[in-house]
Design goal:
alpha+beta; 2 domains
Length: 88
């Protein structure tokens, strides 16, 4: 995956579009750190591509919640434990 500085988006947009076409995706950096990803799409696939990105973020969020629950031990709570906590 190719990385380009954010200033290239304004200074050399043709270069960015060419990289996107040849590389398939491009990481945009600011101060040398990744800040975004450009992914190819088309009119025909735009909604599917967006939904795929949303689902990927949701999966990561659920994984993080599960990791935190395991770290705290709350992943072992029973339904009765949860009901008791809600009632408290």
């Amino acid at each position: 995956m190719k990385m380009i500085p954010s200033r290239d988006l304004v200074a050399s947009p043709a270069k960015v579009w060419k990289l996107l076409e040849t590389e398939g995706s491009v990481v945009i950096t600011k101060d040398g750190k990744p800040r975004g990803i450009l992914l190819p799409t088309s009119d025909a696939t735009l909604l599917d591509d967006l939904q795929e990105q949303i689902r990927a973020r949701a999966r990561r969020a659920v994984s993080e919640i599960r990791r935190q629950a395991a770290q705290r031990g709350t992943d072992k709570l029973t339904a009765a434990d949860i009901d008791a906590e809600i009632s408290a």
